[in-house]
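cache lookup: miss for this entity combination. No prior model stored, computing from scratch. Input as submitted by user K.M.:
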Amino acid sequence: MKKKTLLESEQHRNFLEEIAALPEGERVLSCLQCGTCSGTCPVAPLMDYAPRQIFAMIRAGMKKEVLTSVTPWMCSSCYECTVKCPAQIKITEIMYALKRESIKQGLVSPGTDVYRFYQHFTDIVSKHGRMNEMLLMMKYMALRHPVAMMSRVPVGLRMMMTGVMQVQPHRVKNAESFQKIVEKATALEARQ
Amino acid sequence: MKYLYYPGCSSKGTSRAYEESLLSVCRKLGIELEELEDWTCCGATSVVAVNKVLAFALSARNLALAEQKGKEMVTPCPSCWLMLTKANNAFREGTEPADKVREALAAGGLTYNGTVNVRHLMDFLVNVVGLEKVRKAVTNPLKGYRIAPYYGCQIVRPYAQNDDTYNPQNLEKIIEALGAEVAQFEGKTTCCSGALMATMKDDGVEMSRNILNSIKRASANIVVTPCPLCQLNLELAEFDEKQPWKETELPVLNLSQLVGLGLGLAPKELGLSRSILPGVEKKIKTAKKYSASLEAAEV
């Protein structure tokens, strides 16, 4: 950890309660700090704080540090920690909740832009109803990762050749009803 | 009996071959499928990271449309299956965010009562169609192949449908029903890196390569996976420009492509030419010859 001392004014004493009050957080108070989550996590090496540390930091009231961490954004949703946690904490769901919370509070980690991928994914699905893989990769990579995009040209061409690259975005038949569902769901999410 | 079919977005894009082979296999087995009309994305692991109510509403919308048509729905994608199952559980158990999702659905003139059963293709083949029926339909026994059952993560976690979370067996059962040998390897339920392959490619390639290496150590000559994203990611790792494709790379097939081979279906019906790796069809043939020569040498 970069920081050695956490001043009282920097502590958010009720952060643990806030997380515990989430629908996913019911069992977070029972965390044993055993480290099974960190030990089983296949992406722990990519995280700045492994899952066990995140739970210790939640308990210590380190709200800003947790929400600006890259950890939740590295989670690949494999649920290995969730099935193995002896305290039955729904860790994967808490990682999702931390992602959403960091977006709401404007604290998304500057250390990664995985967030943009998820946001573009959501925007494409909200607009077209189905995913369009090429559109998603273009939106995610064209401006921010042009070099990486160039390196993917060979595989892109191969996919064009085999006919698996969908060009035209999908159109929902009952678009009016679909859009109303999206709008309502988005409004209800914002109200939480 | 007619079953509803939920393809999932990848079936219409990068995983077209999964849909092609699935439809061919079901036709051959006499199973009637009806694609869910006007289905939309399930939300996968991405929407829930941004908007939870929307993620559940997307899945619930599909369930609501399905409810008007029937009770049993099958999907080839573990991620779709998991999201639809999570939405189903929320409705059946009345847990959060079911109320908000109900409200969102109502805005679009839909209701869902929690009556649709969603199965993944793997569970469907083993427990609805039945292995006996698959075994009887085999015209091209896959004798001589050593096949690695790579489950990926979401098909067994957090829920394993009629299987074991820690040591699943359904793929092994299917491989044996097709007359092939199972190549047991370490990490059959290890994550392939999922969406990280798109956002952090080098790390994604490394994760998928570790799995492939463990499969190679088990002397497998074909990999089978029930997940379209696992298939794509393993293939992308093999195709990675930093490590150009070599003769030693393994063909990675999806579940219905493998079953289709055993049922004697033509490569075209199974979409084998759609693999990212060139020449998969030829590789499958050579793999068999190689195994046969080994067997002959042993005798």
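stored under new cache key. The mean pLDDT of chain B is 94.
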